[in-house]
Amino acid sequence: MTEDEARAILRTRFGPAVEARLEAFAAMVVAENAAQNLIAPSTIARIWGRHILDSLQLVALAPRGRWLDIGTGGGFPGLAVAIATDLPMTLVEPRKRRAQFLSDCVDRLQLGHRVTVVGTRVANVDATADVISARAVGSVDTLLGWAYRCATPTTRWLLPRGKMDYPVLQAAEGKWQFMFHVEQSLTDPESRILILDGVRPR
Question: How far is the C-alpha of 22 from the C-alpha of 168, rounded, in Å?
Answer without folding.
Answer: 34
